């Protein structure tokens, strides 16, 4: 099910909207655009956004309230971070049309126990953590479950067309691509034995001469 979250924001004017000053005041500069709407420069409290983002992520609808106006349904379209500190420095919000389908990504949640892993010692291989879907904004969910208990032997895979999707959600591209599978865990090969090097100053006798000497000194077979 979709998690309902709400985020308050304030308009940014040209005089008070300098991004550096906005961030210094504990806010994050942002822009909201999309369905039937001109771009609006806004700012959100850093603390408030971090709490909302922890719940909604980039895949849930958010009720955005700008200066106590009526809430608008938005999704987080893009987050820019400082390359050194990883702090969020700007956010793009997209206002959706609730009557029009959108294409977005939804996280995959792997559940269950695989016999091939638990009993046979196999290794789980995930090829993707999200899946691209099409749906109405109101049908968005926080995640899609993938039951790996179906993987009972090596080289078995759950593919895109095997996913059980919630009502109203369809794959953006239905292919045979593997989502997750189990492969046999390969044991590390034993390293080849290396003969000890001769001590410093010790002559190395050629193998052919050594063999000949051993043959000469060997007792004659009767």
Would you spell out the secondary-structure blueprint of this structure?
Blueprint: E1 5-11, H1 19-24, E2 27-34, E3 37-45, H2 46-56, E4 62-66, E5 72-81, E6 88-95, E7 102-111, H3 115-118, E8 123-126, E9 130-135, E10 144-147, E11 156-159, E12 170-171, E13 178-183, H4 207-217
Parallel strand pairs: 1-4, 2-6, 7-10
Antiparallel strand pairs: 1-3, 2-3, 4-5, 5-6, 7-9, 8-13, 9-12, 11-13
Task: Pick out its properties.
mainly beta, 2 domains, 4-stranded mixed β-sheet, Ribosomal Protein L25, Chain P, 4 helices, 222 residues, RNA Polymerase Alpha Subunit, Chain A, domain 2
CATH hierarchy class name of the largest domain: Mainly Beta
CATH topological fold name of the largest domain:
Ribosomal Protein L25, Chain P
Helix content: 10-25%
Question: Widest sheet: strand order?
Answer: 1-3-2-6-5-4
Number of strands: 13
Biggest sheet overview: 6 strands, mixed, barrel
- What shape does the CA trace take? elongated
Give the number of domains.
2
CATH-assigned homologous superfamily of the largest domain = Ribosomal Protein L25, Chain P
Mean pLDDT equals: 85
Report the end-to-end length measured between terminal Cα atoms.
90 Å
Name the beta content range.
Answer: 35-45%
Poorly predicted tracts of residues: none
N-to-C order of helices and strands: EHEEHEEEEHEEEEEEH
Give the name of the CATH architecture of the largest domain.
Beta Barrel
Give the radius of gyration: 31 Å
Number of discrete helical segments: 4
């Amino acid at each position: 099910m979709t998690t309902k979250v709400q985020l308050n924001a304030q308009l940014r004017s040209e005089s008070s909207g300098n991004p550096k000053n906005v961030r210094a005041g504990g806010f994050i500069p942002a822009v909201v655009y999309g369905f039937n709407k001109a771009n609006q420069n806004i700012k959100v409290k850093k603390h408030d956004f971090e709490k909302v983002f922890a719940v909604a992520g980039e895949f849930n609808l958010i009720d955005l309230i700008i200066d106590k106006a009526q809430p608008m349904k938005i999704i987080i379209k893009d987050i820019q971070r400082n390359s050194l500190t990883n702090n969020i420095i700007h956010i793009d919000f997209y206002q959706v049309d609730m009557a029009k389908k959108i294409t977005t990504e939804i996280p995959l949640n792997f559940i269950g126990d695989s016999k091939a892993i638990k009993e046979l010692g196999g290794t789980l291989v995930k090829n993707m953590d999200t899946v691209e879907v099409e749906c109405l904004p109101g049908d968005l969910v926080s995640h899609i479950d993938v039951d790996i208990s179906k993987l009972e032997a090596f080289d078995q895979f759950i593919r895109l067309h095997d996913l059980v999707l919630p009502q109203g959600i369809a794959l953006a591209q239905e292919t045979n691509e593997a989502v997750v599978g189990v492969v046999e865990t390969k044991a590390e090969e034993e390293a080849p034995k290396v003969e000890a090097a001769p001590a410093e100053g010790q002559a190395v006798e050629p193998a052919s001469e050594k063999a000949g000497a051993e043959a000469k000194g060997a007792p004659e077979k009767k």
